[in-house]
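Field: sequence (string)
Field: structure_tokens (string)

Example rows 1 and 2, in order.
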Amino acid sequence: MTLAALQLWPETASDIGRSVDTLYIVMVVLTSIVVGGIGAIILYFVIKYRRRHEDDVGQDIGEHMGVEITWTAIPLVICLIIFVWASWLFLRMSKPPSDAMVINIVGKQWMWKIQHPSGRKEIDELHLPLGKPILLQMTSEDVIHSFFIPEFRTKQDVLPGRYSEQWFTPTKLGQFHLFCSQYCGTSHAQMQGTVFVMEPGDYDAWAAQVAPDNRPEAVGAALFTQYGCIACHGQQAPTLAGVYNHPQTMQNGRTIIADDAYLRESIIDPRAQIVAGYTPIMPSYQGQLSEEQIFALLAYIKSLGAAASTPGNTANSSTPAATRPTASAPGTGGTP
């Protein structure tokens, strides 16, 4: 029997995976020591203090404060150390680096639909560059799914109506398993795929094999025009240029950061958060736009540059000027 056949868990192929494995191994060792120690003490007491004669009478045992404090303090310290360690790891896994490459993923019974920043799409396959931090931005079109790559030690529930994120940095070339780890219907077992980790140059060449008009921001600009958003945006609402990830003041006085979740909500339910000073005339686009189209609209909004100096001017962006309409903030009385 080979060593590979005795492998207790999948290989580790991400930077976060090594930290997860270390914490897991330490917890297994500590648990084994505690279980083994308690079992050994019980066995010792059973043998030493067993009743040897029918007329044996047990003796009362007095309190020993030192023992009481010891068996309380030591587990407490160990639990606090594990808690702090696990919390630090959780926070690390929750905060992607600023230079992480964002890949959009939509879960649907029973497949994973994936789109890269270049616009290239794939289903049930995920191509990644080696050594590059990756941020997966995920949502579901129907039920709860869970995106799970065992070799990366990452698993994140993917819920309809909201965005979930997870990040990692691939550290090994090769092919790895991709699963849905949340029961999602009759074909749940078939909702799986393959992750391909490639050399960065090979990935760039692979990702570039897409038409320019299929880039997410270009698709979003086309949707912005197709749905008539330009009729109101830039006129009855402020420009969208520079709005992404910046604070917006609502009519109720709250200040909200215009992140992906806020922008999505403003497209699906524009009356949920109304920007101060504007009339809520924007219709809902729930049921009219797919999650992939919403991702494209968000990519378009992100691509806009700083706000124009005069109303109605088109902001600077990487989108061609011929296809780049003037845009304004969602939830303020226009369309997306």
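Row 2 begins here:
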Amino acid sequence: MRRTLLLSIAIALCFAPSGPAQNAASQAKTAARKSAFDKPTLEAYARHLWVLGPDFVVTAGDPKPSDQLPGFKEVTIHLAQGAGSQDVTLLVSNDGSRIVQGSIYNINFNPFKPDLDKLKTEFQPSQGTPGASVVLVEFSDMQCPHCKLQAELLKENLLKTYPTQVRFYYLDYPLVQIHPWAKAASMAGRCVFHANPVAFWDYHDWVFAHQESLTPETLKSQVMEWAKSQQGLDALQLSRCIDDKATEKEIDANVAQARELGIDGTPTLLINGRRIPAGTDWPSIKRVIDFELEYQKTAKNAGEDCGCEIKLDTALPISKAPAITPIRKK
């Protein structure tokens, strides 16, 4: 009996770690756990996940609470390769152990509400009907060949097909890393817009039509030559606006908005918040517009007629800007 008891004690001692040893093992295990809130850890993880070689610069941002998913934080990963860059937003669980990449929807709201809430269209060039139930927002680059093709497609079809049912907004998103005169063209276009909103669309079409002949060195002189044919444009005022870069902050604000939306290329078209891939043909675009026109008859959760208009004041010296209602929706 005594021998059996001693044997049982010996077995217990072998398999039951002491208090201090157990605590040390637990602490070592905790210390070994990786957290996505550790930036080098997350950056290395992203490289492996997306097969990013040494030619990519991967930078993890600071976490912020997620409005979309309780219990998670948003972390933006900035990817850069040469002149190109892209931001990818990840959702990280509060304990740093889980990462989610993808779309999150709330059944109680329009599925595109997160983007609709971020879109700011006040004081942007626009065409179509104020209060329309379908709003198209285009982020475009005046030096981008694909943007030229989409501009031609929309000009040929949009308002001819929907003379009263849609509102179209143009927002500049010059990709300065690859297009050296795009931002200057956008800034000049905004000068034209402030002087005469209607003339902006003539300028818009003229720039795209003359993409191949424009250069950083000749842009202003060619713009001023174009302006001679436009009624209602003060050449001296336009020249001063261009030289003073008076509209640069407006273009920068549009670029910041595009980046906040995660837009990484042009052209990007949103129809009531729904993103339409670049190069989409007109029949496909028309199908989405027709669907939204019918859907919004009862949904009333997008467009400019949803009953949730937000008007913002502006500090910009806009003397002739038309009254434009925003697309921001709740």
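free_text_note (row 2): The first helix runs from residue 2 to 15.
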